[in-house]
Amino acid sequence: MTKFRSRSRRAARSAALLALLLLPGCVSSSGVPAARIAEGDIAAAYLPLRKRTNLGIDSDNGAAVVIAPGIAVTNAHNRNLVDPASVIGARRDYDLLFFRTARRSAPATAQPVPGAAVTAYGQGVDGELRTARGVIRQIKTSPGAAIADWFTFAGNAGPGFSGGPVLDASGRLIGITFGYKDSGRERLIYAYDMARGRAEFSALPKRSN
After folding, report:
1. Please, what is the Cα angle at 196 between 16 and 31, to 5 degrees?
2. DSSP characters for 104-137?
3. How far is CA 147 from CA 59, 86, 105, 115, 170, in A?
4. What's the N-to-C CA distance of the chain in angstroms?
5. Ranges in the chain, pLDDT < 50
6. DSSP codes, 186-204
């Protein structure tokens, strides 16, 4: 398992304390199997990511979600799971990568709220859909910043949830999972909220095509 640190400059000093772990590429899986995504607009926006490795014996898994018509977001560390020709760009200071997709439906979004129940979706080691549920523990905003750097929730997400959506109790998209840390008997999942995702997409260099 590869160690990972949050890549926000402003958050780096605080997040340097966090030995976060990348979610894809492990031989175990977390969450519970799900037959389908219950929320219709999330189901239409959810993109499983998968790539066979080691002569097809193993696989790397992750997820992505549509955030605007034709535009999806995942983690930058999932770049190997995305068609290079579709990549729009990645943010240096955050683990976010944006790419083009044929999907046009973007779900409603909302802000994370401390203490609120959440649901996250990701991919199991065999490519099956998995679900994790938890409660928001913390929202980290750097001093003077208008947008949160990340938030955490306690839950059973893990490998394969990388880049996947986090929803509030109303089924609205509130975040993109990027890492986790086991703290005693509790697992904390880290996610960027959607305001951060939109800001980082807007900050990408403009392309003429």
Report:
1. 70
2. -----B----TT-EEEEEEE-TTS-EEEEEEEEE
3. 35, 28, 25, 19, 22
4. 38
5. 1-19, 24-27, 54-58, 208
6. EEEEEEEEHHHHHHHHHTS
